[in-house]
Each structure stands twice: as C-alpha cells, then as structure tokens.
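Re: that chain you flagged

S.,

Sorry for the slow reply, it's been a week of failed gels. I finally had a moment to sit down with the sequence you sent. For the record, here it is as I used it:
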Amino acid sequence: MSKPTRKQRQRHDPFNDFEVEEKAQPAPGPTSVVVADELTETISGIELLSPSKMMPDRFQPRPLLPLDIATRFFGGEIDCYQAARAWMKQASADEGMQKQIDQLLSMA
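Prediction finished late last night. Pasting the structure tokens below so you have them in one place:
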C-alpha cells in the first residue's frame, strides 16, 4: 500500500468548490451603528455586588460554613463579615479547615 501524496494529505476547503460572484456590498448605514449600540445596552447585564449582598446557599449539598457559624449567620445574629472572622478564628486551631479557607481564598 503506497503512502498518500502531500496533496492528498492536505486538508480540503469545501468553500473553494464554489465560484463566488464578488459584488460590491453597500457600506453599512448609520442605522446599523444605532442597532449595535441598542444591542450593547440590552446585553450588558453585569452588576457589581458588595460582599455584604453575596449570600451563601443554605441548601448547598456540601455546606462550607461550620454549623455553629451558619446557624448564627442564617439566623441573622451575625453579618457576613462577622461570620468570616469567626470562621477564620476557628480555622487557626484546625489545620484542615485552614487548608479549606486557603483554597477558597486562592480562587477569589
């Protein structure tokens, strides 16, 4: 069995099979610019959130917050900053918890 030639090994572009009549296309008018601006306004839906508005999901399958801190946080006794401080304080005595926090902080 012989090896295929270089030409046979090259990729074939199917668009080259058809002859294209090159016609001058009209320049886009000012309406297309307005449409693009309107589309940009519609698409941009990114909002900046402060950390105090970011809430953990209390129903997540693998909860991250320790139970005692999660109970006080979701009960409204402490805010997110107090919960983070309490969690980091607990982690200073627990090496496994400290590794978990370090991994989360590295993703931020």
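What I noticed first: The chain has a mean pLDDT of 78.

Talk soon,
D.
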